[in-house]
Amino acid sequence: QNNNDKKIIIATAANIESAMLALTNAYAHKTGVKFELIVGSSGKLTAQIMEGAPYDIFVAANMKYPEAVYAGGKAKNKPKVYAKGKLVLWSMIENTPISIAALSDPVIEHIALANPKTAPYGVAAQEVLQHYGLNEILGSKLVFGESIGQTDQFIISRAAQIGFTALSTVLSPEMKGKGSWILINPSLYSNISQGVVLVNRKEETNQGSQGFYDFLFSVEAKEILKEFGYLVDE
Amino acid sequence: MISLNLKKTLKSAGGKIDLNLQLTIEKGQFVTLFGESGAGKTSTLRMLSGLLRPDSGTIKVGETIWFDSHKNIDLKPQQRKVGYVFQDYALFPNMSVRQNLEYALQKNQDRTIIGELLEFAELGELEQRKPETLSGGQKQRVALVRALVQRPEILILDEPLSALDLKMRIKLQEYLLQVHKKYNLTTILVSHDIGEIVKLSDRVYELQNGSVIKKGTTTDFFGLNKTSAKFRFSGEVLKIQREDVLYVISVLIGNDIIKVVADRTEANNFKIGDQVLVASKAFNPIIQKI
Amino acid sequence: MISLNLKKTLKSAGGKIDLNLQLTIEKGQFVTLFGESGAGKTSTLRMLSGLLRPDSGTIKVGETIWFDSHKNIDLKPQQRKVGYVFQDYALFPNMSVRQNLEYALQKNQDRTIIGELLEFAELGELEQRKPETLSGGQKQRVALVRALVQRPEILILDEPLSALDLKMRIKLQEYLLQVHKKYNLTTILVSHDIGEIVKLSDRVYELQNGSVIKKGTTTDFFGLNKTSAKFRFSGEVLKIQREDVLYVISVLIGNDIIKVVADRTEANNFKIGDQVLVASKAFNPIIQKI
Amino acid sequence: MDWQPLVLTFKLAVVTTAILFVVSIPIARWLSSTKSKIRPVLETLVSMPLVLPPTVLGFYMLVVFSPENAFGNWLNEWLGIKLIFSFGGLVVASVIYSLPFMVQPIQAGLSSLPSTLKEASYTMGKSKMTTLLKVLLPNIKPSLLTGIVLSFAHTVGEFGVVLMIGGNMPGKTKVASIAIYDEVEALNYVAANSYSLILFTITFFILLLVYLTNGGYFKRYSQ
Amino acid sequence: MDWQPLVLTFKLAVVTTAILFVVSIPIARWLSSTKSKIRPVLETLVSMPLVLPPTVLGFYMLVVFSPENAFGNWLNEWLGIKLIFSFGGLVVASVIYSLPFMVQPIQAGLSSLPSTLKEASYTMGKSKMTTLLKVLLPNIKPSLLTGIVLSFAHTVGEFGVVLMIGGNMPGKTKVASIAIYDEVEALNYVAANSYSLILFTITFFILLLVYLTNGGYFKRYSQ
Ligand SMILES: Nc1ncnc2c1ncn2[C@@H]1O[C@H](COP(=O)(O)OP(=O)(O)OP(=O)(O)O)[C@@H](O)[C@H]1O
Ligand SMILES: Nc1ncnc2c1ncn2[C@@H]1O[C@H](COP(=O)(O)OP(=O)(O)OP(=O)(O)O)[C@@H](O)[C@H]1O
Ligand SMILES: [Mg+2]
Ligand SMILES: [Mg+2]
């Protein structure tokens, strides 16, 4: 129990888990601080924080959730963007033409994207389709994952021949070199800004959490995030 | 003394019977409820033992009121402590024969009775068996001795011997009489077997449509006293055979068939299945052991 | 003709019986299996009807082989078409009395038999009732007539009348005889009631420990032929009473009690419960209807 | 308020329960009467769909049924059946996932019937099928009811498997449970609450109706 | 491979099943014998936890049990019980969620016993409790088994409710189903597969053991 209290507990969105692992390892190496990662969907984590979950830092996959936490009086500071996601179009099936134009091809039966209602990558993908006027046309081909993780699973299981996902997915150690992908022009969708807040816990907040929070915006952290496929403000 | 004063409408989809019953049973008596199928015998026993709630009335046993609809007294079956042998045996399928008996033991009761009862009912070899592997008659024996384990003051027997073979039936009848006397039981039997009733019981109550229509001591009830003066048997005509000018009528009496010679007009009076009396004025019987 | 040649080890936790049975039953006969509880009567009937598989042996009915362990023939119970009255009734709880009977109808069978049977067994008023609301005897009547609905060639009765009152019992016995003849049935009965057996059956087979130990025509079996010459009853001593220098022994014969006078040495020979013969050399009975 | 997910949910629950009922009876019948040695193994297997987290089970199903893989391809090419991202797929997934809820109570019910009922029916020349339908099943009504209620309610509430294999397609595979989940995730608690309330209320009355019918409530008052 | 989630899962499943068993018997006993008019309503209510998607049910529980709200606060202040983000909370949530799987089969089993068994026991002076424990329950073993197996398997596989109320805290509330889910989300399919396989295998053998014991397999060979 005591041991646990010394750890910094980070609630992190599932899709940024591997980057967070790299970041916490780097910070731990430097300072000796211990971490514990609580992984979940941003929506769940938000609900839990609102009900007093013992998390020190909330690293979300968009801005909406940390803002809700802040609005609910559960954050110490206003949410701050630590990284921005990039959208890619990805397929695991060989010889699938990967382009926006090819999406209308009858060969493509299903296109996976994250649910725009709950995931920022979904909103981005929808904006892209809208930009090309494809939203209506492709309507019956679209399948929605509850999170970017599930969208990945649609693509990886080849149930959907192609799909929109995060650059961080295709660059992750597990997926590197699998299938083929193209980057979507970031100007076609609004920023996928990912925010972080320090949680305002009832109990005393772990002293080290401010340090890690600051570290997230350091040059070193930005390098790591870039490696994982995120866009950072230089 | 047991006083029953019971009213109960037995409801069912097909119709209803208004059970309306006054009965007094002396302590230590062995009484039989007799009557047609559906007359209400089982229902009466269930009300006495607390398994069926009368609509109104009273049940008094000795000085204790077991049920009184006005005073709102209604003892639980557990408090009434009657030994009850059910028509469908109600053996506990999860327990062996011995365990069925042991379950019936009361707190701190001497366990030797189990062995005694098992031996008596010739269940010794079957004591480890589960009820489902027993034959019909074996089940009935277990049900019977299980009801005796708790040495109840009142023993209720709902056709306890009907599925037994003659040998076992006689044995258990004897045992019933023995335990009835030994433990000073008040025993209430339902039976259709007149021989059995005569042998076992002191008094008989005949039920019809939920009411007592006839009652009396067993001998009075079946008119057996009259047989003391001269010899008379009741029996049933099995066969009427013509032999020359005479007729031979075969009558089943108990387990025996006797043949009675009759002339034509007499013979025409009878048909197969008739219940008849066979009597003789001159009768000097010899009795002999078998 | 039914030929049974059956071997079966009846296993159970407490021990085992090797059933080993040779039986031949003529078509149209009414035979009784008689014997102690646990002798294997029910098991034999179950093997005949295809509900229990013999370890080895043959069952032949008429020209058809129903079972032959060597030829690997084993007709299903459905193909054997026997009418079976089970010891536990086996009424279908989900169906009313009438529905239970109707269920037994064969394809295209004339439905009038239902009404006929309901009326005969006095079940007319109960026809809409569910089995659970019936008394024990009512259930047994339903089970009995249900087995008759399909007009089986072979009728199997496992203690069908044991829970019935005398009136109903006599009625159903008569009906059994009627249907047995009318439909040219081969009927196999298990019964412990000698009166019933004598009245109904042509032949008796006594089973003990899984084997036939005695068989014969009913009259031979029970030694009834001997009664034709002189009068002899079997009965049971109920009471031995001293009256002055003499003793009066009460003997239960069938439903009647007779009193026999005996002297002291004679009386000392008997005790209550003894099975005895009561005979008379001079016996000129009068028969009279009741 | 979008009613489509609710309609889809009850359609799915009804179809799934009906199929489960038909599929489970022979399985339960076999399990309750066989003396085969592999019975315990099969009994165990029937319960196994419950053991994996629904989304994970859904993922494995997705892999198996995907037309890119051998089995899914065979289904697609030879039978023309597509089980992913379709209502048919939801049904298949729900049937597999809820199988134990139907099989187990029916099996327990059949095991508890006295064997003479079956035997009596056989001696009347009735086939196994007739016996099952007219004698055995009507006498295990409480168990059938348990199976139906558990399967129905479970299908209404399931969303993990369904989300995975269905892909949350509006009007096609977006059932109420997914819609509610979406609203909760999106922090639209008011919308989630009203969906939940409606789902809850409708299901409550459906199940209440089932129980009342079973308890003879309507019969009693119609006489 | 981190074994903690697996240990936690089976601990949760055992504790939950045990509590459910104890809690459900009186409920089932009452439901099977009462003639009360509200019985169908209560029967329906027992099934209702199934109807909501697990995460949503978890969300409502989170709100109710949270110390931020009246009831949770009362629990916390007066009884010192904290039900969110704790193992105790997982147990309570699992018990509520799996209640129908235990209550319904037991109720169906009890309804099918002939009433003379109970009555015979009463006339022997045995209390309702003794009768229940020694006579009624031992004679509905298939139904008890159904309840135990369904509850156990369902608790092992559940993750929606548990994730919501437990918060995925390693060593405390991170059970195997959540760990698998995490790995799948993190695209670590190899890790997810090995977790699944282990979970599946262990549960398979636990349930097989239960079925073999029930089928008298061990008894038969010990004699
Ligand atoms: N549970 C019940 N509900 C409604 N009616 C019942 C119930 N049990 C018995 N009855 C009816 O009550 C009447 C009396 O039944 P009871 O069992 O007391 O008869 P009985 O005299 O014991 O008959 P039998 O000799 O056939 O056992 C019958 O008409 C029967 O149908
Ligand atoms: N299912 C079974 N499994 C094992 N043994 C059995 C089974 N059924 C009966 N037995 C045994 O087989 C033997 C013969 O039983 P059966 O039922 O044939 O006897 P029965 O002659 O009909 O007796 P009763 O007159 O008591 O009905 C008995 O010892 C019984 O315990
Ligand atoms: Mg009766
Ligand atoms: Mg028998």
TrEMBL record, chains B, C:
Domain ABC transporter: 1-234
Entry keyword annotation includes Transport: yes
Entry keyword set: ATP-binding, Nucleotide-binding, Transport
Record-linked SMART domains: AAA (SM00382)
GO molecular function, one term: ATP hydrolysis activity
Pfam families linked to this entry: ABC_tran (PF00005)
PANTHER family: SPERMIDINE/PUTRESCINE IMPORT ATP-BINDING PROTEIN POTA (PTHR42781), SPERMIDINE_PUTRESCINE IMPORT ATP-BINDING PROTEIN POTA (PTHR42781:SF4)
Official protein name in the record: Molybdate transport system ATP-binding protein
Automatic annotation (TrEMBL), chains D, E:
Subcellular location: Cell membrane
GO terms for MF: molybdate ion transmembrane transporter activity
PROSITE patterns: ABC_TM1
Keyword match Membrane: yes
UniProt keyword annotation of Membrane present: yes
Keywords: Cell membrane, Membrane, Molybdenum, Transmembrane, Transmembrane helix, Transport
Membrane topology: Multi-pass membrane protein
Record-linked SUPFAM superfamilies: MetI-like
A Pfam family the protein falls into: BPD_transp_1
Domain ABC transmembrane type-1 span(s) in chain numbering: 6-210
Record field: transmembrane: 12-32, 44-63, 83-103, 144-166, 186-212
Gene Ontology CC annotations of this record: plasma membrane
Protein family (similarity comment): Belongs to the binding-protein-dependent transport system permease family. CysTW subfamily.
Role of this protein: Part of the binding-protein-dependent transport system for molybdenum; probably responsible for the translocation of the substrate across the membrane.
NCBIfam families xref list: modB_ABC (TIGR02141)
Record's protein name: Molybdenum transport system permease
Organism of origin: Arenibacter echinorum
Organism classification: Bacteria, Pseudomonadati, Bacteroidota, Flavobacteriia, Flavobacteriales
